[in-house]
Amino acid sequence: MKNLDTTLYFVTDSTVVPEELFLPSVEAACKGGVSMIQLREKKSSTREYLQLAEKVHAITKRFQIPLIIDDRVDVALAIDAEGVHVGQSDMPVAIARKLMGPDKIVGATTKTVPQALEAYQAGADYLGVGAIYPTTTKVVTILTSVDTLKEIVKAVPIHVNAIGGLNKENIQVLQGTGISGICAVSAIQKAADPEVAARELKAAFLAL
Ligand code: TZP
Ligand code: MG
Fold this sequence. Notes:
- By secondary structure, the chain is an alpha/beta fold.
- The protein has 8 helices and 8 strands.
- It has one domain (8-206): Aldolase class I (TIM Barrel), CATH 3.20.20.
- Helix content is 39%, strand content 17%.
- Strands 1-2-3-4-5-6-7-8 form an 8-stranded parallel beta barrel, surrounded by 5 helices.
- 4-methyl-5-hydroxyethylthiazole phosphate (TZP) binds at residues 11, 130-131, 135, 137-138, 140, 163-166, 184-187.
- Its EC number is 2.5.1.3.
- It is an enzyme of class 2 (transferase).
- Pfam families: TMP-TENI.
């Protein structure tokens, strides 16, 4: 198992903040103690994704926080990011692993135990599991139950993070699940002060 700290994994959404506030929000989240960052750009062109990734990487490197690129192995490799994250309709984990090499981080989204086992066997270092709660960040048709989350944690010997609608007021439900950490978009990205939001969310998770 790779030595990762997935305690508070900030997944970005540049579309919900004014452009000039996006990079400052990434830096603020780093200061607030996020342990990993995923750049998640769904609407950018390849060129825009690359350019933004370079800028975000310059920040995360200063804080020695791993930067994971969502969906795009090519962008991750091009900027020498620490890893890539793939979903069920993206590049399969085994191919992402082959392209990224053994030392980079490969993460996968899984919603069921069979998907989790498959991703683990194909070489994933961590899993994102959800959505646990309704979310405005992604179109989610079926929520993932806390019981399924627990089963996935038991089924695979890699880091499992919960995701979806999580904030400091509602993560109590994750107590006793055995997860390594939580992923959050809105709770940090939409906060008036992302640094404070990250710090408080991390403290709330660590207090579980
Ligand atoms: N995958 C499952 S839910 C989700 C993703 C990417 C979005 C989570 O965003 P938020 O704003 O923390 O609910
Ligand atoms: Mg994806």
